[in-house]
Task: structure prediction
Amino acid sequence: MAQDNNREVIYGLYDDEEDLLRAVKLAKTDHLDIYDVFSPFPVHGLDPLLGLEESRLHQAGFIYGALGTMTAFLGMSWIFTKDWPNIFGGKPYWSVPAFIPITFELTVLFAAIGMTVTFYVINGLGPGVVNKHLDDRITDDKFCIAFDKSSVSSEKAQAFFKSTGASEVNSKTI
Amino acid sequence: MSAVVSSIRKPLITGHKTYHQITEDLISPTEKTPTKEWVIGFVLSVAVLTYGVFCILWTIWVGIGSWNLNRTINWSWDITNFVWWIGIGHAGTLISAILLLFRQKWRTGVNRAAEAMTIFAVMCASLFPLIHMGRIWLAMFILPYPNTRGPIWPNFNSPLLWDVFAISTYLTVSLLFWYTGLVPDFATVRDRAKGLRRKIYNTLSFGWTGSAKHWQRWESLSLVLAGISTPLVLSVHTIVSFDFATSVIPGWHTTIFPPYFVAGAIFSGFAMVLTLMIITRKLLHLEDYITIEHIESMNKVILLTGTIVGVAYLTELFIAWYSGYVYEQFAFFNRALGPYWWSYFGMMFCNVISPQFFWKKSWRRNITLTFFLSIVVNIGMWFERFVIIATTLARDYLPSSWSLYSPSWVEIGIYIGTFGLFFTCYLIFVRVAPVVAVAEIKAILKSGGDQYVGENAIHHHSHHEDNHGSSHNEHH
Result:
């Protein structure tokens, strides 16, 4: 999610992912606009509740892979028929079966590098990036729901966290 | 956690762990001062590595003549070690990729360390062909790039070049897969640290926050990387086997090589994972995360792949006889009864007989026996490569060229040195990163923790069902 500067958030910490899921569901029925949810591990069943669309990363991966296939196959074809035609072992210049292993490897290589780089870029992650985070225990054992104070008032949020059994409620500017 | 977990499944995490305890148990080894065992191990590894580096420099300075290769046996110790290390590297990707696709949850206990092993083993492996080129300063000739040397390109029809692509792709993809898994765990280390340590781990964790969208993409990325790593890991040893299978050497040019090499690679890889994990779990007290169940599962893989390898050996012998081709028949006769008969029978014993012990359940669950046999298997797999490479070349078409081979001190030093490289990297890894994937263990706690499944479960099963977010619809 976009990291705007100076966003006032109020967040509640839960001790268990089941409490978190129940709370997120309630927030949805109460029409409370959740800013973000943080957890120490991927909580299954959370994405549809938050209305997160399926990631399109794998589609990007397919395009990168196809790019790798073309680079390898067209590259080798051009080199061995136009730039540097040579006869190896009496085989034709354009010996397609011999190109298959390298074509496959470059498909995988391009897809893997492309997807991984895309993953870090769209998430705003990378070496040297400092993202302000709400609580140190979110990477340990706490599950966090955060509301933007500009869309959900503090009182409303407090009442919500109390009714859903949050173990702690805090505010922070991130 | 969308899969329904049978209550008769054995727990994968014992000791009634909470999320916080998991963090404590798995992160604290990186926070404590190193133990005496670690320091001794590290000093030893670095010493061995230093000797290896000396031998490599000797090779580069003096030339390949310092090795005992000759005109007949022009591949031997070096390529044996190369194939051996590459094989060891195969378990990591098998565990992290193929077992992820098959939803084998026990992989979470060992995948991190196995992937690390993969990377270090591939580093050790790729060293051998590089120095075997002789003039390592011309190593860039193997890379295809537009150049002013003609232009002159590498031979894309050659399996040796396919190997360059396969191994560099394998190393890169394994590294990306491994590191992406490490990022959330580095964030956990960061959030427990202070001062400079926190800054360092913030850099390593890439600023990870644990946002729901990030986790969603992280899972998507892991799944696709697993999906493309699966054919990749099978392709790598297939292509290594092409180095031999596409040649015209009797005993090498057989179509059985690719599957037989892949099975052998997984076989030796799992053996190395077991050797390392049995030591690691003991020294870092990870018995609750790498349980007997994990060891038993890996022993089953060893039994399966060892048996496949055994069948492949027998098939080779049968086909050599059945082919009616006298050169092929001689190649196998020579392997078994020629001057290197001891390596053939060593291979047969270590790879075919020794894994058969694991048919017995109590032996699969015996740690001492497993540790011993895991080393036996790796010796056997080393013999296999030596048998294929050196003994085949020793008796070629022309009896006047027949030759014998024994390694020089430089070759032995380089091989020993790769152990130094491997263990130095591994020991640094266990100090810097959590050896078991913290976030992934937490994610399987409710389906694999012993308070939820197994005989001693204290939570009622219906509570577990709540995970799926299905049964509490009626509450609201």
